[in-house]
Amino acid sequence: MCYFTKKSPKTATTKAHAKPISARTPFLPWVGVAVWSSCALMSAQAALPSPFSTGELSADLAQAVSAASQMNISQANFNDVSNPANDMPNTENATPFSLSQAQIDAWAAHTTWRRLLFMPTADKDKAGKAVISSISQQDDPEFFLAPNGSQDPTAELIAMLKAVQNQDEAVLCRLPARAHFIQENLQKLGINTPELACAEFDAWADLLGGHGLSLVFAEEHGNSLASAFAHVFMRVDKDGSTDTATAINYTVAPNRRDSQAEGAIKSMLGSYDGVMEIMPFAKKASDYLHTDGRDLWVYRLNLNDDELRQVLRHIYEVQSLQRPYFFTHDNCATEIVRLIDLVRPDENLRKQVGKIVIPSQIARIMDQEGIIISREFMPSDTTKKQAAINKAYTNGEDIRPLLAQPLANFRDVSVARPSNNDAAKSSPVYRLGLGAGVTDFADKAHHQPSNTKAIISVRSAYQDALDRPAGVRQFHALSLPSMTLSASDGDVSLDELTIFSVRSYNPANTAKNNATINTANTAKTATPADDKPKSASAWGQHLRLMRVMDASSAANDNHLVLDVRLEKGKSWTLGQGAAGTGMLGDTLCYALIGYGAQLGKLNQGYRVGGGLDLGCVYQPAGRWRALGELSLPVWYHHDKADVSRDLYVQPKLSVGAQFDINARQALRMTGDVEWGKGDTQQQLMAQWLTYF
Q: Where is the DUF7843 domain (predicted)?
């Protein structure tokens, strides 16, 4: 979900240590299998390189911090400040600052203190009794002062109190967020301590600025599995200008020698460490807007100056910390939520985002909680080019000269209205469906007249062609594990288990076609033929268990099979996008050539084949959407007993429509007709969908 991000040049690092993390939380093996299988099947045009982040401070920022530190180091003289605690006894048995044990216990149990140590806060068991674990998610000994600090928040608190009382500059300046928490609470008791002055941290924080913190959402990448679920990072403003703002990005540090399939599985299992990447925002934004062709949404958060400063203190503490990165639940999105929860102990955004955390849901939940106070749309080069194409459509002009121009020619184009991909307006991605279906066969001799069944479906993520498209990249189609069960006459059966399914359309007659250009030549006033952008192919990949009809047999009962399929072809949009926007038209049609195999209780136990899929998706601006597809597969299996059954065609026509009641409720109707050997199968299903 926040897998690999754009690569930063390897420069001076801010890491102070590199201890291996021994604890790794296991994850569901079947999810790992799904990602491994899908990655392994990726075709060349689909498997774009996944750049890696180094997790290091960029060269510009590193040099500036170093210079500022040298300039300000003389200002930090801790021997010149008085310490009212110095007159207090500091024996081995006395508590720091003569605090009572009850006070120390209360501070150790404080939500903020526990969150600073990556420890869970209090929860309730089934009986409603408060339960709490004191095991930190981190086990790097250099992150703790006490030998047992990763398991004992009280021992770690006492160690930190002693460091404050003794004015241990090395500790206080390495852990400024914890030091601030201690000093703030001591001040509430009337105990004043010298103001913390750390030249290196102050220079680092001043360079980043402190005039506001924003959540930045980069929309889904249509052609890279690594970025298909979008990405989020933070922007720290210095003086209100994006030119001086800084991007803070929590990402994964993979082994560069691992294949993409290995990398996907290891990120699922937490086998890689997460790193904090810090660089100029302008460079980070350029990677998305110009290189990837992905729009950005910038959401200004309502943190006050004190909260922002404490967020920066904590980032400074953990920027070199090695901790496991999980693709699904300890990722770029959860890190931002954790930072907000840290400075607002009464909030618990982490609990609201669920077990599988997706970037778009972070923006939606923050908006619901009133944390977002303003938003800014930053269109990509592809969106600007599409806006120019839409304008040409409106004026009745020929769009072909525009399609032939490189994206760089459109960077000065203004987009009057934002696209419909505002993540704060997205629907939840988890989906539950309840409904009924009927299956009917024309061959009454081999089948019952009809079979009515109850249906329940569950989907974990992310988006299909009929889902509400608000807050998502247009025509994005990506589904992770989903399941459909049916019950009839007391029997329950598995109708479909989708492990992974994706289609990327890259419509050829639009700017959103993932075009590549021959950079050997440099475009002048006129674009040379060799420099004409070449649109990418539409493509698809599918790995699932599904029920199919075997058209090689008259007794073609539905069989549950493993279906593996790859697709490649072309797509085009019909009509024009909304005026003043860089959006596509509301209708997309495609022609895909597919090939694959099915294994299961079929004639000979398998079949392989290929064929043509022709279809259209209709996504108007209103509450309903529709699709239709005609599949013409040709299947083959070797049959010594009956050569006439070796090769056969099995056409299928599928249609569907969905009407949105609201952002969380919808009614979906689907149906299909499939022709087999002397038989026709018809299915119709209706479901009430709930998104949560």
A: 108-184
